[in-house]
Amino acid sequence: MNFVRLLTLLSGASSVPLTQEIWNTVTEGKTLFVKFYAPWCGHCKALKPAWDQLRAEYMDSESAMVAEVDCDAEEDLCEDVDQFPTLRWGDVSALEDYDGELDFDSLRTFAAKHLHPKCSPVRLDLCDDEHKALIDSLLPLSAEELDAKITEYEVQLEEVHKKFDEDEQRLQDEFDRIEAEKAEQLRAIRDPGLRLVRSVKALKLKEEL
Question: Is 193 helix (H, G, I), strand (E, B) or coil?
Answer without folding.
Answer: helix
